[in-house]
Design brief:
CATH superfamily: P-loop containing nucleotide triphosphate hydrolases
Strand content: 25-35%
Distance between the termini: 31 Å
CATH architecture: 3-Layer(aba) Sandwich
Helix content: 25-40%
Radius of gyration: 19 Å
Low-confidence stretches: 1-10, 12-22
Structural class: alpha/beta
Number of helices: 10
Mean pLDDT: 89
CATH topology: Rossmann fold
């Protein structure tokens, strides 16, 4: 497990989120032989891939292949698990994400997270969105910050007259969009989404997918999903991970099988295992 970093330090690179032109060469993350262990047990082994700026990158694969473990490496949430140890090289805008000068709290400020199940705080709608900006001491009118975040999350028109109401009164789809608004209120650079639609109905899922396509104009997005159609609809790049067994066949771990443009992965995959999974032959 990486040694905890002092809270007084922060990332020295602030990404240029307002760049006018974005090309596939603009890398948000660079992973080189990244592995994760929980105690003595490998969870993910030797993952190497680049995640690009203002793209939607989907991680797909069967349960237990390490998708959630891998995405949590990107904002150092695995640091919160005492037995977890991250190995290899992981760079964020060229800077070592696990370097000695990097404060994990600052990492999570720049790299927001939306979880599988909507998890609003037991507060008002307004206070849910205002929580992050207040905590980090963001400058500006808090009411304007909240409104802008709710607008970007496509929720403002539905809640503008009930901002003092408890967030638990919202529908499941609205709660998930509220969590997205909460994540973007602090002006992150990246949004990580771990199965954000698995608990939602088809209509709410479609709204979240439309929202992702709008948000990628401002943010890099990485999404974990079991929904092949969703990955094909929204993502620019797709990584397929598979469950493998250690030599003694006692421990399962995740391995990256293929990573490419989504259109190629779904129409002309390079590995037969990818094709078998996407076609439903295995899973």
């Amino acid at each position: 497990m990486p040694v905890p970093m002092p809270d007084t330090r922060e990332l020295t690179v602030r990404p240029a989120a307002a760049a006018k032109e974005v090309h596939r060469v603009d890398k948000t993350f660079e992973l080189r032989r990244v592995s994760v262990r929980y105690g003595d047990n490998p969870a993910v082994k030797d993952v190497s891939m680049d995640i690009f700026h203002k793209n939607i990158t989907a991680l797909i694969g069967p349960s237990g292949c390490g998708k959630s473990t891998l995405i949590r490496c990107l904002n150092r949430m695995n640091d919160l698990i005492p037995s977890a140890r991250v190995e290899g090289e992981l760079r964020y805008h060229g800077e070592d994400l696990y370097g000695s000068r990097v404060d994990p709290v600052q990492v999570r400020k720049l790299i927001g997270m939306v979880f599988q199940k909507p998890n609003p705080f037991p507060k008002s709608i307004f206070d849910n969105v205002a929580f992050g900006p207040r905590t980090i001491g963001m400058k500006g009118d808090i009411r304007e910050i909240v409104e802008n975040a709710l607008r970007r999350a496509g929720l403002w028109n539905e809640v503008k007259n009930r901002l003092k109401d408890n967030a638990y009164g919202l529908s499941g789809g609205q709660q998930q969009r509220l969590c997205i608004a909460r994540a973007i209120a602090t002006e992150p650079d990246v949004i990580l989404m771990d199965e954000p639609c698995s608990a939602l109905d088809p209509i709410s899922t479609a709204r979240i997918e439309d929202l992702m396509l709008e948000l990628k104009e401002r943010y890099s997005i990485v999404i974990v999903t079991h929904n092949m159609q969703q990955a094909a609809r929204v993502s620019d790049m797709t990584a397929f991970l598979m469950v493998e067994l250690t030599a003694d066949e006692k421990t399962r771990y995740g391995e990256l099988i293929e990573y490419d443009d989504t259109s190629k992965v779904f129409t002309n995959p390079a590995d037969s295992r990818t094709e078998d999974y996407i076609s439903g032959k295995v899973g």
